Amino acid sequence: MGAPDGQGDRRTDRQHRWLRRGCAGWHRLLLRCAGAPGDRQEQLRMLRSVGAIVFGARTYRMFADYWPQADPVAEPVAVPIRELPKFVVSSTLAAAPWDADQSATVLRGDGVAAVRGLRERIDGDLVIWGSLTLVDALLGAGEVDMLRLRVVPVLLGGGRPLAPPGTATRRWRLARVESFGGGVAVLEYHALA
């Protein structure tokens, strides 16, 4: 039996496990957390410019456990998440099945080089959901052009910083701010040259 999410619908225990792991793991960088209906529309808008989704192995496993079975009526972002090409940067996965009809492509080797290669091949933006190790490497290499930070008003009492220690100072310009029900806000920053 699920628990109410604040919008009146009910989520399964498995969905709540995903949301807890996902939000606690990296709720600041473009991760789907329970939010207001307007927030869901904002995510659909954002996904229109995305050409592919990139994951690290742990985040891929979380997504593959939840999103292929997600009800598109309850979770409208399930449709573009299902349809977009998916890539997993991993040295441990032999394969990355998604559902009965598709798989994610496993990219081996250096994550920064793999993402640079995808940028050359993929039309549209690349979104990296979660994937702390990969995001750390990309931030350290100066390969992140835009940060979309979701602020969820939950005090965790601990955690890790957004950028890993030793990341070079980089200036960012606030490009957009949107607020949604429940105190959720999305901040979009663009890197300055």
UniProtKB/TrEMBL annotation:
- Bacterial bifunctional deaminase-reductase C-terminal domain: which residues? 37-185
Query: What Pfam families has UniProt attached to this entry?
Result: RibD_C
Q: Which InterPro entries match?
A: DHFR-like_dom_sf, RibDG_C
* The protein's name: Dihydrofolate reductase family protein
Instruction: Tell me what organism the protein belongs to.
Output: Pseudoxanthomonas kaohsiungensis
